[in-house]
Amino acid sequence: VNGIHDMGGKQDMGPIEYEKNEPVFHAPWESRVFAMILAPSPGAGGTWTRSGTPEKFCGPPTICR
Amino acid sequence: VKALESLLVEKGLVDRAALDALVDAYEHTIGPRNGAKVVARAWSDPAYKTRLLADANDAMADFGFISRQGDRIVVVENTAKVHNLIVCTLCSCYPWSVLGLPPVWYKSAPYRSRAVIDPRGVLREFGLELADDVEVRVWDSTAELRYMVLPERPAGTEQLNEEDLAALVTRDAMVGVAKVDQPQSGGKA
Fold first, then answer.
1. Contacts of B154 (CB under 8 A, 6+ apart)
2. pLDDT digits over B153-168, tens only?
3. Which of A57, B127, B165, B179 is most buried, taking the most CB atoms under 10 A from its CB?
4. How far apart are CA A8 and CA B113, in angstroms?
5. Angle CA(B157)–CA(B163)–CA(B169) in degrees, nearest 5?
6. Is residue B105 within 8 Å of residue A25, measured between CB atoms?
7. What pLDDT, on a 0 to 100 scale, did the predictor assign at position B69?
8. The pTM is what?
């Protein structure tokens, strides 16, 4: 893969910025968007429901995240 | 974001309670404490360690840590002579079921670009200086194949039980940017 996403080996990207005690989400909107991407209801082709568990969700396996 | 959520709920495409449950799970349940339990068991039980290195998905399932997207997880073992480091040069692939969501630095351009050409320099930036005779192996993750590092068990922990051992294991050690410190010597979370 040779594209904009392929960062391997690129130079001059600066220092790594490490955040101590980093929260899972930095702002409430991040968590809502994350969940909306992950949680289409059965009607939308997903399998996540209120009673479901994360393990039961079957998203597209080719999405890299 | 609120408008988008309302629209999705209105159209029946998402269940608001499911969104809440997901956020809660990734904030409180699915995180590096899962991986730490796996590491502690591997340190305590040689048979489990053998299984973990042979088929991580199967061994992690003992704890109920099942990969959500059906990807395969490979556990790579650090020793006195081999140090493993994981990265995703393409984006942010990470073993969610055992480490949770990746930190921002893992997804950042500086880490992804340099982990593969200058891993020793990257480790130095994290405060980890490796001796010249230690081999560094960098594992580039994909959506289908993700890695977790089995860190070296620190000296002076022979008497500790699994729970106490797990408390020593940090996320950074399971990514390979840190070692597990000896008890009471502190360390990064």
1. B168, B179, B180, B181, B182, B183
2. 999 999 999 999 999 9
3. B165
4. 4
5. 65
6. no
7. 63
8. 0.87
Over the stretch B53-73, which tens digit does the pLDDT of each residue have? Answer: 999 999 999 999 987 666 899
Question: By CA distance, what is B110's nearest residue in A?
Answer: A13
Sequence-distant (6+) residues with CB within 8 A of B137 are: B76, B82, B83, B84, B85
β-strands B135-140, B82-87 pairing:
parallel
Distance from CA of A53 to the nearest CA of B (A): 9
The pLDDT of residue B15? 84
DSSP letter assigned to residue A54: G
Write out pLDDT tens, residues A5-62: 788 888 889 999 999 999 999 999 999 999 988 876 554 455 544 444 443 344 433 3
**A22, A30, B7 from A27: Cα distances, Å:** 12, 6, 21
What number of C-beta contacts closer than 8 Å exist between A and B? 158
Is A17 in contact with B125 (Cβ distance < 8 A)? no
Encoding tokens for residue B168? Answer: 């020593």
Check residue B189 and give its pLDDT. Answer: 44
Residues 6+ apart with CB under 8 A from B8: A36, B14
B92 flagged as catalytic: yes
Helix-strand-coil percent breakdown of chain B, rounded to 5? Answer: 45, 15, 40
- State the Cα–Cα distance between residues A3 and A38, nearest whole angstrom: 26
Name residue A42's amino acid.
Answer: P
